Each structure stands twice: as C-alpha cells, then as structure tokens.
Amino acid sequence: MSKRTLEDVARYVENQCKGGCKVLSAKPEQHFNDMGEEVRVWNVKTDLEGALWVVEGDTMPMNFYSQEAYYFSADEVYSFHIGLMERMSKASSEYKPEKFVEAITLDNGIALQLFRKLKNIATLIDSAVEIEDFQAIGVQCREILIELGNSIYFAEMAGQREQPKASDFKRKTELFIQFYLIGSENSDYRSIIRKLTESTWDYACKITHSSSTTFYEASTCVTLCTSLVGVYENIRQKVFDPISQYKCKSCKSKKLKPIDDVATDDGIVVKWFLQCDECGEITEVNVEKNLVKIEI
Ligand SMILES: [Zn+2]
Q1: Bridge-partner residues for 256, per DSSP?
Q2: How many angstroms does the Cα of residue 189 sit away from the middle of ligand 1?
Q3: Ordered DSSP codes for the chain
Q4: How far apart are CA 225 and CA 222, in angstroms?
Q5: pLDDT in tens, the chain (296 residues)
Q6: I need a surface site. Which of 1, 39, 40, 154 has the fewest CB within 10 A?
Q7: Which of 256, 289, 252 is CA-nearest to residue 274?
C-alpha cells in the first residue's frame, strides 16, 4: 500500500460521515514509527462533524475519532488506535468456537460426539441471521440435549421402573439425578439441577417454534445447553470423586487423602480412613449410604 494522500483521507472521512459532511482541511499532525511501521495521525476539520483525528498506517485500517468526543491528543489517539487494532486482530485470529465450549464445560472430557455437536452449534450461531437459522439452532440444541441424556443414562438407573424412550431427555435426566444425587445433603443441588434441566429443554423447544426469536435468545439457548452439558459432567465428576464431600473432623479442612479402607468381599468400599493434609488427623467415614454405582 502506498502512502495515503490528503485526498485519500478526505475521501475516507466524507464516505464515513453519516448524513454527509465536507472536509474543510486535513494535515498530518504526527508520525509514529515505533512498531516498525509508519503510522500517521491527521488533524481533520469538517463542516458537520467538527474536528477529527484520522489514524492510518501502511498496513493498518484507517479509522477516525472525534476530537471533541474523545478529548484525545494526537499522541493519545495513536496509542488508543494501536490498542484497538491489536485487540481486533487477536479477536479474529484467536476466536475458536471449541474454546468457548471448553471454557464453559471446564474442558472436562465430555463425550466426543457431544463435543462435536456443541462446537458445531457455536459456529452456527455466528452466522445465524434469519428466523429459520434460529429455529434450526433450537432443533440442534434439542438434539444436543437428547444426546446428553443418552450419554449419561444407563439402564440400571431405572431400577424396577419402566425404561424411558430413547429420546426422552427429561425422564433420563430425572432418573440420573435420582440415581446419583441421593440423600438430604444433595437436596439443594438436586433442586437447582432439575430446574436448569427442565428450563433448558423447554427453552430449546420454544426457540424451535418461535417466530420472534432474535440472535440473543438463540445465543442464550446455546449457552444454556452448553452449560447444562458442563453441569452434568460436574455431577459425574462429583460421583467419581466421592471424597470431595468430606472434611477433616478436627480442623474442617477439605484437604483429605485416603490412606486406608475397609471393603466387602465383592470389593465394595464401605469405610474410608482419610488423613488431613493440614493437621494430620485421621477421619473415618462410612461410605455405605453414599455408595454410588460408577460405570466407566
Ligand atoms: Zn485437619
């Protein structure tokens, strides 16, 4: 790109001014070269928009800033512009939909198929414009939830009760909750997870049929679904980490590690001896009532 002239700058400003304005004068106010590239700040006077700073460089996009609105000196507007360009280039080169999914699900090893679908939908939402796009996102969200139900459910969870239908997400999650989150100590956890599960499903169904959805509702739906996947992964982690619920009987620290256990003949642990990392005290816990089935 060759050096921009006064005419280039004037044309740019007149094109960008909403409602049309005329450039009365423009002169280069300052040059900077501390980034290995010459960047110029122009002082531009217009009839309708007042005084502007225009910042441009050999490879960077031109931008203008109102001198009245920002109260910037030429020096300050230069720093501001460089910062802005840097953030923009980072945002476009570093944004990856899977990063969003990983962050929200705590990157905790969710089922591959589920991960792929979540990644897909995080990409879809970026290009969704029309009502049909949003409805399609609702459909995808429901599929993700059904997939989630299938990935966390196994037949023993129903016990003697009737097996849920393959796509019965609500029933499968309810059986999962009843199976894993037992006892009064889990009652608040159970309650919030039930509400979240139910409302996420209902919302996805609503988006599927709604004719007034905007990007924001669809995006909320995607965030809710992704979060819910993370929530169920958390429950599974809690189950795989049963010691997490105990604390030291003398100093109440949670830094416990199992040092011994008592198991039944078929290998089911019924008692743990947990040593506190803080004070060394050994806490003995009966695990019978918290016994959960763990399928790997
Ligand atoms: Zn302790």
Answers
A1: 276
A2: 26
A3: -PPPPHHHHHHHHHHHSTT---EEEEEEEEEE-TTSS-EEEEEEEESSS-EEEEEEESSSPPEEEEHHHH---HHHHHHHHHHHHHHHHHHHHH--HHHHHHHHTTT----HHHHHHHHHHHHHHHH--SHHHHHHHHHHHHHHHHHHHHHH--GGGGTTSPPPPTT-HHHHHHHHHHHHS-SGGGHHHHHHHHHHHHHHHHHHHHHHH-SS--HHHHHHHHHHHHHHHHHHHHHHHHHH-GGGG---TTT--S-EEEEEEEE-TTS-EEEEEEEETTT--EEEEE-GGG------
A4: 5
A5: 457 888 889 988 888 876 678 999 999 998 888 777 788 999 999 988 889 999 888 777 788 888 876 657 888 878 777 776 765 665 555 556 666 566 555 555 556 677 778 888 888 887 888 899 999 999 999 999 999 999 899 999 999 999 999 899 999 999 999 998 888 888 999 999 999 999 999 999 999 999 998 888 898 898 889 889 888 888 887 777 778 878 899 999 989 988 988 888 877 778 889 999 999 999 998 875 444 443 33
A6: 1
A7: 256
* Residue found under tokens 């501001």: 80
- Of 101, 135, 105, whose CA–CA distance to 118 is shortest? 101
**What is the whole-number distance in angstroms between the Cα of residue 153 and the centre of ligand 1?**
37
Integer Cα distance of 163 and 27 in angstroms: 78
Residue 292 Cα to ligand 1 midpoint, Å, equals 26
**Sheet of 39-46: strands edge to edge?**
23-32, 39-46, 51-57, 63-66
Query: How far is residue 227 from each of residues 18, 112, 221, 240, 274, measured CA to CA in Å?
Result: 41, 16, 10, 20, 33
Whole-number Å distance, alpha carbon 186 to ligand 1 midpoint, is 24
